[in-house]
Design a protein that fits this description.
Helices cover about 70% and strands about 5% of the residues. Strand 1 and strand 2 form a beta hairpin. The radius of gyration is 19 Å and the shape is globular.
């Protein structure tokens, strides 16, 4: 159990820094490094990745102008893929196996959805729309909070269960036996990144819809 539970690595000003925080920093550094390498040596591949993300988003959203939403959605997709997958490195823990990370990502989605809605429709019109009639406003708030919680729990549950299975199998039968579970974990990591990004795109689309 300790292998998948976030461990305190060190302290900064008496604040604990856990293994998932360190893995998050490594994930971000790895993404920056890979993008820098691709920009220099394989710009066409980087453009293909961008086109793929744009195509994925445009297939979900009814909004034709997706350029303002693509930076957020693309960043979420790339970060979650790396964060889900980095746990295969023996000394690292997948950041998304920590509920705090998935809640933080979901809060980013909650704030962004409402920000884009206000940006598209105007502050007053957006508030008027979600609170008309006023009796529905509490249900709108509950709905947004519940889907935010659902986003975080779905991602957390899938990643932590994969790490649990891999840890148990590796403990019982080391070396070769866990490899299929590692491959399955990588596939599920990419799949969960797609699901999280697709749902975020859908929520944004609902918020900006006329």
């Amino acid at each position: 159990m300790e292998a998948i539970t976030p461990q305190i690595i060190f302290y900064i000003f008496n604040l604990p820094v856990t293994s998932t925080v360190v893995s998050t920093w490594i994930s971000m550094g790895l993404i920056i490094l890979l993008i820098a390498i691709l920009r220099k040596f394989a710009p066409d591949l980087l453009e293909n990745i961008s086109d793929f993300l744009a195509g994925m988003v445009s297939g979900i959203m009814s909004e034709t102008d997706i350029d303002r939403y693509l930076p957020l959605l693309g960043t979420l997709a790339i970060f979650i893929v790396v964060a889900n997958s980095i746990g295969i490195v023996p000394v690292l823990t997948a950041p998304t196996s920590d509920i705090n990370t998935t809640i933080a990502l979901s809060l980013v989605v909650l704030i962004s959805v409402n920000f884009f809605g206000m940006q598209k429709k105007g502050f007053r019109n957006y508030l008027k729309e979600i609170s008309s009639p006023i009796i529905l406003l509490p249900f709108e708030i509950i709905g947004q909070l519940s889907r935010t919680l659902s986003l975080s729990l779905r991602l957390f549950g899938n990643i932590i269960s994969g790490e649990l299975i891999s840890a148990i199998v590796f403990g019982l039968i080391p070396l070769i036996a866990p490899l299929p579970f590692v491959a399955l974990g990588l596939f599920l990591g990419v799949l969960q990144a797609y699901v999280f990004t697709a749902l975020t795109a859908l929520y944004i689309d609902l918020a900006i819809a006329k």
